Amino acid sequence: MFCFEISYTQISPDTLHYTHNSNVAGTQWMFTAVQITDIHLGESSPNGDYGTTGWNDTIDQNTGCDATAHLRNVVQWINANKTNEKIEIVFVTGDLSDRGEKSGFIMSRRILDSLTVPYIVTNGNHDMWPRVSGDEAPAPFGDSIFSEVFSDHFTLLSQQLNNWNDGTRLTRIFNPLNNVYSQFQNFSFSKGSYRFIVNDFASRYPKPGVGTMIDGALYDIPGGTYQWLFTALAQAQPAIPNGIILLQHFPLDNELLSSTYSFSSAEHDSIMDLIEPYAGSFGLCIAGHRHRSKTYDIKRSVFSTVLGTGIETDANYKYANGYIRLIQFWDYPTAGMSSFEKNISCLYPNPFADKTTLNIPGNFTLNNLTVEIFNIQGHRVRCYDNITDHKIEILKEGLSAGIYFIKILNPFYSETIKSIVF
Question: Could you tell me which residues come within 8 angstroms of residue 148 by beta carbon, excluding any fewer than 6 positions away?
Fold first, then answer.
């Protein structure tokens, strides 16, 4: 069964704002991240079936419905306003597919791929157990479908973002708590002085009827999320106060009803055990799930020390024009920049129409240096090795107009520069 999408002219989505670290001396507004959450593609599909028939399905020209249109509107608005708002990255924090159908992931990817800035996706409880009316998957392996659909997108992100760590994302392990194989979508990356840690706390526990439990789960097992977070926090070392940012579907509030919709009190305390040693370095937890918009202090209990700020944003699918939060990140002007990026002549001209020159700083060794060029799909289109000069001329010849990523690397160093070819 198909649901026909309602189309209309792009207008502004409902928008919230948050500013992070503007009180830190020496910082300025460097970039904005957009949070979109709970997009629930397929939510209003008739007979509980999005895309083609079944849960292991695909999309066709008729696939879509209100939630699809809401997401498209948001993406169009981001592309139109990225310059004025300094938008450099988008966070999609779970519940992409309303019932874990493959078609929901495929359509999410198709729409999000039209963004002209990098986007991060993680999963939520709705994504875990694929099902449609009268047909349910035998196990909660929505994480594997998610991984399959977004596989080459993550390859591209590893080229676009600094200090990328695939974490547990690529490893499918036996999960003894649910007696199934699971692929926990945990990974991390850096932007400027900030370290972003993405956590998959989505429950794989079945709920009565169909689907998985609405609550989060720690999965304190080898290859699971709790042990991943322990290691990721220890390795984070942000170069700015409040610089550790958690991205996940489930929020870290400490309300009395938390155990109903997020983590139990014991689970919440266990996560606080991990975060408390990094007081001063921990900054934000950006989440969705509860279909509400709220900011609050993250702490163990009412009278405990404040560790950071929790941000929750309402569900995008509920709003005719979409619903987003713009998060302004303040940072040191040259934070997270390599010696290449601090040198304004590192790549000039950029954008370029015929040719450009990559200027490698004179104090940088050329031994075993390689320069690779990747297109927006993450495919390598050119490689320079055996480099003997600190200036490399790059010709347009053979490169179609578009966005490219120039990766400079040797055995001890890797850096990526964005370039645009006219």
Answer: none
Mean pLDDT of the chain: 89
Burial of 131 (0-12, 13-18, 19+ CB in 10 A): buried
Residue of 333, 161, 363 whose CA lies nearest to 239? 333
In the three-class reduction of DSSP (H, G, I as helix; E, B as strand; rest coil), residue 72 is classed as helix
Burial (Cβ within 10 Å: 0-12, 13-18, ≥19) of residue 1: middle
Instruction: Name which residue leads in pLDDT, 256 or 217.
Output: 217
pLDDT digits (tens, 9 = 90+) for 117-136: 999 999 999 999 999 887 88
Q: What is the DSSP string of 188-226?
A: EEEETTEEEEEE--B---B-SSSSB-SSB----STTSHH
Interacting residues of 63 by C-beta distance below 8 A, sequence separation 6+: 2, 3, 50, 51, 52, 103, 107
Predicted structure pTM score: 0.80
The domains found in the chain, sorted by start residue, are 14-331 (3.60.21.10), 339-421 (2.60.40.3080)
* pLDDT tens digits, one per residue of 68-99: 999 999 999 999 999 999 999 999 999 999 99
